């Protein structure tokens, strides 16, 4: 390349990626693709093996294909469990079944230690799979663990302060802050309604944000009017902490 004074300036060679650099990039790309597939297959087989180990010994030999086939059939215990669970659900839909389940329920509720485990697990599964339970109402932001630090939380329900020993008529939220990336661990706390900033997003999208450690944000952005409303919201005043009467 000729300069203004007539000298020839050699062209700068384009940056080249070494062979080892390309191999490393290929390796990490392949790892990002194959690792989720391998983990999914491993978790599925592990789940199937658990049911096979638990239930196959109780399956009559006539119905167990492992007794007359030269190889083991994976997943047959899981199929048997699904059939049994469905039959129990069908039994609970009639009067006789509800009566039997009610007697079993009363017996477990009167058994020390066992009743605590049974009651807690029953409430969890009713919340997850039945209309009897309640799920998180909304996702929100709270200043936790200190002022100026915003943490994603989930509103479980709205409560009155008298329900937790505070003054009556005090509007509060029961909120849950989950840990990342495992949302099953976390902290339950109670706060005033005015100390919570409710988010315009679904609980499912907020859970994705927690599980992904902040890498996966909700697909849809906030509506413009919602952004303006949040931006123009005046600073909140700290709720007065009156002594419980």
Core attributes:
245 residues; alpha+beta; 6 helices; 5 strands
Summarize the structure.
The protein is of the alpha+beta class.
Helix content: 40-55%
Largest sheet: 5 strands, antiparallel
Question: What is the typical, i.e. mean, pLDDT?
Answer: 79
Net shape: flat
The end-to-end span amounts to 87 Å
Number of strands: 5
Major sheet: order of its strands? 4-3-2-1-5
Beta-strand portion reads 5-15%
Q: What ranges have pLDDT less than 50 throughout 5 or more consecutive residues?
A: 237-245
Task: Specify the structural class.
Answer: alpha+beta
Number of helices: 6
Rg result: 29 Å
Order of helices and strands: HHHHEEEEEHH
Question: How does this structure look, described?
Answer:
This protein has a domain at 138-231. The protein has a 5-stranded antiparallel sheet, with helices on one face. It contains 6 helices and 5 strands. By secondary structure, it is an alpha+beta fold. The longest helix is centred in the N-terminal third of the chain and has 37 residues, at 19-55.
